[in-house]
Amino acid sequence: MVKLASLKEQIERLLDHPYLREHVPAPAVDEDRLLLSLSMMTDAPAGPNEPDRCIIAMMLMQIALDTHDQVTDRGGDLRTRQLVVLAGDLYSGLYYDLLARSGDVALIRLFAEAVREINEQKVRLYEKKVERIETLFAAVGMIESALLAKLAERIGAPQWGEFAGHYLLLRRLLLEQEAFVRTGSSMLFEQMAHIAFPWAKGLTKEQKRHLLRLCERYIDHCKEALLAANLPMNDLLRFRMAELAGGFQAIVKKSVEEG
Question: For the structural domain made of 1-248, what CATH number should be given?
């Protein structure tokens, strides 16, 4: 899709900083989020005057959040960690500058709400304060899609916000599931184990299978919601949905069956 490639190139130019380029990896531009935002803008009954600017601003804010998530107190030298923090701050500033120049105060407010909601959920997960599996998956879904949901709200297309939520949650669940099966390590499955088996010091095979079945149940729920969505989709979005629906699932089902 030419438009998607053009937007991606514009974002990469904005992200390009000569000093950061030498010292920290360039952030990836999430093409799925671009595709979802472009699709909802095309279908929007009340699109903004400058749709490209709104999409680019949303992507910059998401990249800023993702960049800050990379900062840990373990590994790497202090200077690199400081540069990663500064890079995240820079991307956040670029987002604000874009929207401030367009005078779209309403969207700035909506994105600010999304960032607050995302950070609140991240803190809950970090502190392991979630007590129900359903709440855990809802929190992860919000973290993945809150910015896109606010963009959908801004353009009067909430159905696209729900669609993006299921799409991005499905993608995240598949990645976590794959990590758990291949390496035995996954942030999501660690949280699920903490809820389902709070006193266990290690997971038995049956407990692992139980967690995989729980995850598969939510994966199926997301797929059903996506297939039931009555939205005009372009060929690229249909292709990506088909990719998400297939792929690693066969391996996981075999793993669950074999234990």
Answer: 1.10.600.10
